[in-house]
């Protein structure tokens, strides 16, 4: 193969490569990489008011508000803001908190328990349109019910507070997952 033919082949390969790269860049322009593609693109800010708490454990609302704020900032392209005029508002309410004995030993000492928390949540835009909908079981209710339980074993040094914190973090994760755009 002569130098001229070799040069023609390399020029043809280079132009083919440039064409393919340009086609990919232009053809893939509306696509996004990373987790930002999972969430609606017309939203920039989310207001998360302090979560109301209907239980006797006074700190659950504040703790869930913190967990939700961290989860939204970590996993979504949205900015959590204190401004009630944000693009959207995520309202939640802790409606129940229970502790249930799972196992006891022969002397009736508790060995394992479940800590359960139930939360009602709704996410809406400025016009009041719901952005988070229960597509599995449609109801007339404007909220979605989330429930999370965590097992803990006092004999192993685990406490109700540790189990509750884990349940709150898991609830925040599940609520933020429901903020993803539907396919």
From TrEMBL:
A Pfam family of this chain: LptE
GO cellular component: outer membrane
GO BP term, pick one: Gram-negative-bacterium-type cell outer membrane assembly
InterPro entries, per the entry: LPS_assembly_LptE
Transmembrane intervals: 12-33
Keywords, alphabetical: Membrane, Transmembrane, Transmembrane helix
Protein name per the record: Uncharacterized protein
Organism of origin: Rhodopirellula baltica (strain DSM 10527 / NCIMB 13988 / SH1)
